[in-house]
Amino acid sequence: MKDILIIGIGAGDPDYLTTQATKALNRADVFFILDKGEAKDKLIALRRLILDRYIEPGRNYRILEATNPERERDVADYNASIDSLNRDKQAVFEQLISQLQDGEIGAFLVWGDPSLYDSTIRILDGVIEGGMPLDYEVIPGITSVQALTARHRIPLNQIGRAVQITTGRRLREGWPEGVDSVVVMLDAQDSFRHVINEDLHIYWGAYVGTPDEILIAGKLADVAEHIAETRAAAREANGWIMDSYLLRRGGREA
Protein backbone atom coordinates (compact mmCIF):
# COMPACT_ATOMS: atom_id res chain seq x y z
CA MET A 1 0.00 0.00 0.00
CA LYS A 2 1.37 3.38 -1.03
CA ASP A 3 0.46 6.54 0.92
CA ILE A 4 -0.15 9.86 -0.80
CA LEU A 5 -0.79 13.38 0.50
CA ILE A 6 -2.72 15.87 -1.65
CA ILE A 7 -1.66 19.20 -0.18
CA GLY A 8 -3.47 22.43 -0.98
CA ILE A 9 -0.79 25.13 -1.08
CA GLY A 10 -2.98 28.18 -1.60
CA ALA A 11 -3.44 30.64 -4.42
CA GLY A 12 0.11 31.89 -4.89
CA ASP A 13 1.43 33.56 -1.76
CA PRO A 14 3.61 31.17 0.30
CA ASP A 15 2.09 32.78 3.41
CA TYR A 16 -1.27 31.25 2.41
CA LEU A 17 -0.10 27.82 3.58
CA THR A 18 -2.01 26.54 6.59
CA THR A 19 -0.39 24.99 9.65
CA GLN A 20 -1.88 21.65 8.62
CA ALA A 21 -0.27 21.97 5.17
CA THR A 22 3.17 22.75 6.60
CA LYS A 23 2.91 19.72 8.88
CA ALA A 24 1.97 17.59 5.87
CA LEU A 25 5.00 18.85 3.94
CA ASN A 26 7.18 17.54 6.72
CA ARG A 27 5.55 14.10 6.58
CA ALA A 28 6.31 13.61 2.88
CA ASP A 29 9.42 11.94 1.51
CA VAL A 30 8.78 12.47 -2.20
CA PHE A 31 7.15 15.44 -3.92
CA PHE A 32 5.63 14.99 -7.37
CA ILE A 33 5.80 18.05 -9.60
CA LEU A 34 4.23 18.26 -13.06
CA ASP A 35 6.09 20.56 -15.45
CA LYS A 36 3.72 22.69 -17.54
CA GLY A 37 6.39 24.15 -19.80
CA GLU A 38 8.90 26.97 -19.80
CA ALA A 39 6.25 29.69 -19.65
CA LYS A 40 5.12 28.43 -16.24
CA ASP A 41 8.57 28.05 -14.68
CA LYS A 42 7.48 30.53 -12.00
CA LEU A 43 4.94 28.01 -10.71
CA ILE A 44 7.60 25.34 -10.24
CA ALA A 45 9.94 27.89 -8.66
CA LEU A 46 7.19 28.85 -6.20
CA ARG A 47 6.67 25.21 -5.24
CA ARG A 48 10.39 24.86 -4.58
CA LEU A 49 10.33 28.07 -2.53
CA ILE A 50 7.52 26.61 -0.41
CA LEU A 51 9.54 23.44 0.21
CA ASP A 52 12.65 25.44 1.10
CA ARG A 53 10.73 27.67 3.47
CA TYR A 54 8.58 25.16 5.33
CA ILE A 55 10.41 21.83 5.42
CA GLU A 56 12.39 21.51 8.61
CA PRO A 57 16.21 21.68 8.36
CA GLY A 58 17.86 18.30 8.06
CA ARG A 59 14.80 16.52 6.69
CA ASN A 60 15.64 14.66 3.48
CA TYR A 61 13.20 14.50 0.59
CA ARG A 62 13.16 13.86 -3.13
CA ILE A 63 11.47 15.69 -5.98
CA LEU A 64 10.19 13.74 -8.99
CA GLU A 65 9.19 15.75 -12.03
CA ALA A 66 7.16 14.75 -15.08
CA THR A 67 5.71 16.58 -18.05
CA ASN A 68 2.11 17.59 -17.56
CA PRO A 69 -0.11 16.39 -20.45
CA GLU A 70 -1.85 19.13 -22.44
CA ARG A 71 -5.54 19.17 -23.28
CA GLU A 72 -6.46 19.29 -26.94
CA ARG A 73 -7.96 22.72 -27.60
CA ASP A 74 -10.74 23.87 -29.93
CA VAL A 75 -12.42 20.48 -30.17
CA ALA A 76 -16.13 19.93 -30.64
CA ASP A 77 -16.53 17.55 -27.69
CA TYR A 78 -15.18 19.34 -24.62
CA ASN A 79 -16.04 16.54 -22.18
CA ALA A 80 -14.28 13.95 -24.34
CA SER A 81 -11.14 16.11 -24.42
CA ILE A 82 -11.19 16.33 -20.60
CA ASP A 83 -11.63 12.56 -20.29
CA SER A 84 -8.67 12.03 -22.62
CA LEU A 85 -6.56 14.52 -20.65
CA ASN A 86 -7.34 12.81 -17.36
CA ARG A 87 -6.43 9.40 -18.78
CA ASP A 88 -3.09 10.82 -19.88
CA LYS A 89 -2.58 12.36 -16.43
CA GLN A 90 -3.46 9.08 -14.76
CA ALA A 91 -0.70 7.34 -16.69
CA VAL A 92 1.77 10.01 -15.51
CA PHE A 93 0.56 9.69 -11.91
CA GLU A 94 0.96 5.92 -11.99
CA GLN A 95 4.50 6.26 -13.34
CA LEU A 96 5.44 8.73 -10.59
CA ILE A 97 3.80 6.82 -7.73
CA SER A 98 5.43 3.56 -8.84
CA GLN A 99 8.80 5.12 -7.95
CA LEU A 100 7.91 5.36 -4.25
CA GLN A 101 10.05 3.06 -2.16
CA ASP A 102 8.67 0.98 0.68
CA GLY A 103 7.63 3.18 3.59
CA GLU A 104 7.89 6.46 1.68
CA ILE A 105 5.03 8.97 1.57
CA GLY A 106 4.44 10.83 -1.69
CA ALA A 107 2.83 14.25 -2.05
CA PHE A 108 1.17 16.29 -4.77
CA LEU A 109 1.23 20.06 -4.23
CA VAL A 110 -2.04 21.49 -5.53
CA TRP A 111 -2.66 25.18 -6.21
CA GLY A 112 -5.52 26.57 -4.16
CA ASP A 113 -7.62 23.75 -2.73
CA PRO A 114 -7.71 20.18 -4.09
CA SER A 115 -11.53 20.18 -4.09
CA LEU A 116 -12.04 23.23 -6.35
CA TYR A 117 -11.36 22.97 -10.09
CA ASP A 118 -8.55 20.45 -9.70
CA SER A 119 -8.43 16.89 -11.00
CA THR A 120 -5.92 15.31 -8.59
CA ILE A 121 -8.53 13.59 -6.41
CA ARG A 122 -10.41 12.18 -9.41
CA ILE A 123 -7.21 10.97 -11.03
CA LEU A 124 -5.99 9.20 -7.88
CA ASP A 125 -9.40 7.53 -7.61
CA GLY A 126 -8.82 6.34 -11.18
CA VAL A 127 -5.38 5.02 -10.21
CA ILE A 128 -6.98 3.02 -7.38
CA GLU A 129 -9.73 1.72 -9.68
CA GLY A 130 -6.99 0.69 -12.11
CA GLY A 131 -5.58 -1.69 -9.51
CA MET A 132 -2.76 0.21 -7.81
CA PRO A 133 -3.08 -0.18 -4.02
CA LEU A 134 -2.78 3.24 -2.42
CA ASP A 135 -4.41 5.46 0.16
CA TYR A 136 -4.50 9.25 0.14
CA GLU A 137 -5.25 12.15 2.45
CA VAL A 138 -6.48 15.58 1.37
CA ILE A 139 -5.19 18.75 3.06
CA PRO A 140 -7.31 21.82 2.22
CA GLY A 141 -5.85 25.11 1.05
CA ILE A 142 -6.88 28.72 0.48
CA THR A 143 -8.64 28.93 -2.88
CA SER A 144 -8.23 31.57 -5.56
CA VAL A 145 -11.84 32.54 -4.80
CA GLN A 146 -11.00 33.32 -1.18
CA ALA A 147 -7.85 35.17 -2.19
CA LEU A 148 -9.74 37.19 -4.82
CA THR A 149 -12.49 38.36 -2.46
CA ALA A 150 -9.98 39.12 0.31
CA ARG A 151 -7.85 41.26 -2.00
CA HIS A 152 -10.95 43.17 -3.17
CA ARG A 153 -12.19 43.42 0.45
CA ILE A 154 -15.65 42.03 -0.33
CA PRO A 155 -17.69 39.10 1.01
CA LEU A 156 -18.22 36.20 -1.37
CA ASN A 157 -22.00 36.20 -0.95
CA GLN A 158 -24.71 38.74 -0.31
CA ILE A 159 -26.86 38.22 2.78
CA GLY A 160 -29.29 35.36 2.25
CA ARG A 161 -28.33 34.98 -1.41
CA ALA A 162 -26.74 32.12 -3.33
CA VAL A 163 -23.37 32.08 -5.06
CA GLN A 164 -22.51 30.03 -8.13
CA ILE A 165 -19.00 29.05 -9.22
CA THR A 166 -18.85 28.36 -12.94
CA THR A 167 -16.69 28.51 -16.04
CA GLY A 168 -16.44 31.03 -18.86
CA ARG A 169 -17.92 28.46 -21.22
CA ARG A 170 -21.05 28.23 -19.06
CA LEU A 171 -21.31 32.00 -18.60
CA ARG A 172 -21.43 32.42 -22.38
CA GLU A 173 -24.71 30.48 -22.28
CA GLY A 174 -26.26 33.27 -20.19
CA TRP A 175 -26.59 34.54 -16.63
CA PRO A 176 -27.63 31.67 -14.29
CA GLU A 177 -31.06 31.89 -12.71
CA GLY A 178 -31.58 32.44 -9.00
CA VAL A 179 -28.18 33.92 -8.10
CA ASP A 180 -26.82 37.44 -7.71
CA SER A 181 -23.12 36.53 -7.38
CA VAL A 182 -21.20 34.38 -9.87
CA VAL A 183 -17.53 33.44 -9.64
CA VAL A 184 -16.01 32.59 -13.02
CA MET A 185 -12.92 30.44 -13.41
CA LEU A 186 -11.20 28.90 -16.43
CA ASP A 187 -12.21 31.72 -18.76
CA ALA A 188 -9.89 32.12 -21.72
CA GLN A 189 -12.29 34.15 -23.86
CA ASP A 190 -13.34 37.19 -21.77
CA SER A 191 -16.80 35.70 -21.37
CA PHE A 192 -17.92 38.60 -19.16
CA ARG A 193 -18.56 40.45 -22.43
CA HIS A 194 -21.59 38.19 -22.98
CA VAL A 195 -23.35 39.59 -19.88
CA ILE A 196 -22.27 43.21 -20.21
CA ASN A 197 -25.90 44.38 -20.37
CA GLU A 198 -26.86 42.70 -17.08
CA ASP A 199 -26.00 45.74 -14.88
CA LEU A 200 -23.23 43.97 -12.99
CA HIS A 201 -20.12 44.84 -11.04
CA ILE A 202 -16.97 42.82 -11.65
CA TYR A 203 -14.09 42.06 -9.30
CA TRP A 204 -11.25 40.64 -11.39
CA GLY A 205 -7.82 39.41 -10.38
CA ALA A 206 -4.86 37.78 -12.09
CA TYR A 207 -1.86 36.07 -10.46
CA VAL A 208 -3.52 36.83 -7.10
CA GLY A 209 -1.12 36.44 -4.20
CA THR A 210 2.01 36.65 -6.35
CA PRO A 211 4.33 39.58 -7.14
CA ASP A 212 2.61 39.85 -10.56
CA GLU A 213 -0.86 40.38 -9.02
CA ILE A 214 -3.29 42.60 -10.95
CA LEU A 215 -6.68 43.72 -9.58
CA ILE A 216 -9.45 45.60 -11.38
CA ALA A 217 -12.97 46.32 -10.09
CA GLY A 218 -15.91 48.42 -11.20
CA LYS A 219 -19.13 48.48 -13.16
CA LEU A 220 -18.76 45.79 -15.82
CA ALA A 221 -19.83 48.02 -18.69
CA ASP A 222 -17.16 50.56 -17.70
CA VAL A 223 -14.17 48.26 -17.14
CA ALA A 224 -14.77 45.24 -19.42
CA GLU A 225 -12.51 46.43 -22.22
CA HIS A 226 -9.84 47.54 -19.74
CA ILE A 227 -9.82 44.05 -18.22
CA ALA A 228 -9.67 42.40 -21.64
CA GLU A 229 -6.74 44.57 -22.70
CA THR A 230 -4.92 44.12 -19.38
CA ARG A 231 -5.46 40.37 -19.52
CA ALA A 232 -4.12 40.09 -23.06
CA ALA A 233 -1.04 42.17 -22.19
CA ALA A 234 -0.32 40.11 -19.06
CA ARG A 235 -0.66 36.84 -20.95
CA GLU A 236 1.70 38.10 -23.63
CA ALA A 237 4.25 39.28 -21.07
CA ASN A 238 4.20 36.12 -18.95
CA GLY A 239 3.33 33.46 -21.51
CA TRP A 240 0.36 32.33 -19.37
CA ILE A 241 -2.30 33.77 -17.12
CA MET A 242 -4.09 32.57 -14.00
CA ASP A 243 -7.14 34.73 -13.30
CA SER A 244 -10.69 34.62 -11.97
CA TYR A 245 -13.45 37.10 -11.30
CA LEU A 246 -16.67 37.66 -9.40
CA LEU A 247 -19.71 39.21 -11.06
CA ARG A 248 -22.41 40.66 -8.83
CA ARG A 249 -25.71 42.43 -9.10
CA GLY A 250 -25.85 45.44 -6.84
CA GLY A 251 -22.13 45.31 -6.14
CA ARG A 252 -19.93 48.13 -5.00
CA GLU A 253 -16.73 49.40 -6.48
CA ALA A 254 -13.73 48.18 -4.49
TrEMBL record:
Keyword Ligase annotated: no
InterPro entries xref list: 4pyrrol_Mease, 4pyrrol_Methylase_sf, 4pyrrole_Mease_sub1, 4pyrrole_Mease_sub2, CobF
Listed SUPFAM superfamilies: Tetrapyrrole methylase
Domain Tetrapyrrole methylase: 4-223
Molecular function per GO: precorrin-6A synthase (deacetylating) activity
Entry superkingdom: Bacteria
UniProt keyword annotations, A-Z: Cobalamin biosynthesis, Methyltransferase, S-adenosyl-L-methionine, Transferase
Biological process annotations from GO: cobalamin biosynthetic process; methylation
UniProt entry tagged with the keyword Ribonucleoprotein: no
A Pfam family it matches: TP_methylase
Residues spanning the membrane: none
Pathway, per record: Cofactor biosynthesis; adenosylcobalamin biosynthesis
Protein name per the record: Precorrin-6A synthase (Deacetylating)
Source species of the chain: Phytopseudomonas punonensis
